[in-house]
Amino acid sequence: MNQTMGVFPSLKDKVAVVTGAGSGIGRATAELLASNGASLFLMSRDEEKLSETQRICEGYGVDCTYRSTDVTDAEAIRQSFAECLEHFGRVDILCNVAGGSTGRKSVFEMTESDFDAVYELNLKNVFLCCKEVLPGMKERGGGSIVNVSSLIGRAAGDNTNVAYSSLKAGIDQFSRYLSRELGDFGIRVNSVSPGYIEASQRITDLWNQTQDMDRVFNRLSIKRPGTAMEVANAIVFLAAEESSYITGEVLDINGGAIMA
């Protein structure tokens, strides 16, 4: 599988925040940014995993720090960005990767608190993180935000729930609308929509519990799951100035599962 790491010269000396950076797509995104010379502030719940991502990123000779952050907690988000700004003084790039599903659950089983939990983890945190970086980006006249949604936001599936699917769709529309609001300030906003990505063993196990994955991959144009680095390449391309005329885009990374 493809582990090629893209080269984006415009990222050198930029300051990037990556949420969900402890593993999977978030870790791959942080590593790719670091390999291109960006300084990094990392967020995730798991401090041990964040420390390992920091070690990987610092291996590229960049300044990388982190704060263990529950992105469903608005105050924790505020504190993390305050620490980031104290350390770096600005944020040029925000990659909102954090998210997750509560698993397969029918609408009959889902409670209001279940729905709220998925909302806070997948869409509300994106809004809150954007709110933290936008004043500085506006003042400096530029910035780039990349949000991560999901194929399941456009296609019904068997391994998640109505809340996760609808909120991932919401991320795409949030990105489109925000890009229109912020264009006058030189701020670009885009979204990346991954399909079947082998980002963690937990996700792979969940697929196998609910679907015949050989049949799923056989329906794709590229008949295999994607890798975290393949998604990271798309995220970082949209974050970098190499994509300076792209905003409001939803980029599918799904091996041909959906073509539109």
From TrEMBL:
This is SDR family NAD(P)-dependent oxidoreductase. It is an enzyme of class 1 (oxidoreductase). Keywords: Oxidoreductase. Belongs to the short-chain dehydrogenases/reductases (SDR) family. GO terms for molecular function: oxidoreductase activity. InterPro entries: NAD(P)-bd_dom_sf (IPR036291), SDR_fam (IPR002347). It comes from Bhargavaea changchunensis. Pfam families: adh_short_C2. It comes from the Bacteria. Gene3D superfamilies: NAD(P)-binding Rossmann-like Domain.
